[in-house]
Please model this.
Amino acid sequence: MITIYFLSGLGADERVFARLNLPPGYQMQLIPWEKVKGNETLEEYARHLARTIDASKPFLLAGLSFGGIVAAEICKFLKPKKLILFSTVATGQELRRIYRLAGSLRLYRLVSNIYMRLTLPFAYWFFGPLDNEGKKLINDYVLMNEGVYLRWALGQISCWKNSEIYHPNIRIHGSLDRAFPLDLLNDVDYVIEGGGHTCVFTHATEVNEILMKELAD
Model:
């Protein structure tokens, strides 16, 4: 049995992967998010989370959104058989210019829990299209995230300078992703038509077919 270690989106939990069905021979293990320690760098945080991984056995690594960014950092010191990226960027060059500008101006420091609650209707649009269960996931994500962690994570995303792409990899992305627009990305393997940033949940049937095809060997 080969373990695929999953990293969810920013502060999200395992429910975002609840509709995935892995092929025979594979099992899912979620790497839970942990609190940031002081002025921890992204590399230090990745090493912190990677303690969950048993690298003595063959394994795969999968990341959604911010989880994909952290997964890319983990691949710099651990070598999975394959990296699976859902709805995320592979390098800093694929980020929106406005994200990079926000990083240089440190605008992420202004984000707070109250601000996130007030912008919840926008979050539905930004992470959509969503079904009712998807909206509940986003709602819980906004209410559960701590301001300190959220500011730190947004800062790490907007200031990410990575230029290395780990191989082999599989990239799955929604055609309507508003967080990381498809037209800014390079070498996406599978495009989920009509899928948004949470297509791994809302379009799980299509994603499951891709995983079956890619991992069946």
Remarks:
- The CA atoms of residues 171 and 187 lie 8 Å apart.
- The domain at 2-215 is CATH 3.40.50.1820 (Rossmann fold).
- The chain has a mean pLDDT of 83.
- The longest strand covers residues 2-7.
